[in-house]
Amino acid sequence: MVNDGKHKGIILLFILALLQTNFSPTIAYLYFGMKYYVYIDNKITTYKNTVGIRCQSGDEDIGFKYLKDNDDKYNFNFRLNFWGTTLYFCHFYWGRSDFSYVVFDMGSYEECRDGASYWEIREDGLYSRCYKGGSGGKYTWKKRHNWP
């Protein structure tokens, strides 16, 4: 006959061990199918301000879109995969310049734990920020890539 007290003790030790490790909140969110949002805004104000964008992952092609005017937007969302390997990149086209950039990977998630990242396309490059909610909603834009 199995001792129930022994099993409860083993389960309790297992739970305590998980709590003592660096158990990432990412794992918990994955089980709940957390959605992540990416917002990309065209902030180019010069005469030739049309920007082309195509975003995709290894499993999904979000599609190509022209952002024609200052403040035109390209937004999408997705669910994090079970393995914690979700990655999305976008290819940006402006005039004769183009480049690709990863707009989401699990490092982005760790940096922007609020479930969203915000991107701006400017004349001098690509910028991003995380929204930090609460009173004041503080955020800082970071330059991520220059136009070639």
From TrEMBL:
<dbReference type="GO" id="GO:0005576">
    <property type="term" value="C:extracellular region"/>
</dbReference>
<keyword id="KW-0964">Secreted</keyword>
<protein>
    <recommendedName>
        <fullName>S-protein homolog</fullName>
    </recommendedName>
</protein>
<dbReference type="InterPro" id="IPR010264">
    <property type="entry name" value="Self-incomp_S1"/>
</dbReference>
<keyword id="KW-0732">Signal</keyword>
<keyword id="KW-0713">Self-incompatibility</keyword>
<dbReference type="GO" id="GO:0060320">
    <property type="term" value="P:rejection of self pollen"/>
</dbReference>
<dbReference type="Pfam" id="PF05938">
    <property type="entry name" value="Self-incomp_S1"/>
</dbReference>
<comment type="similarity">
    <text>Belongs to the plant self-incompatibility (S1) protein family.</text>
</comment>
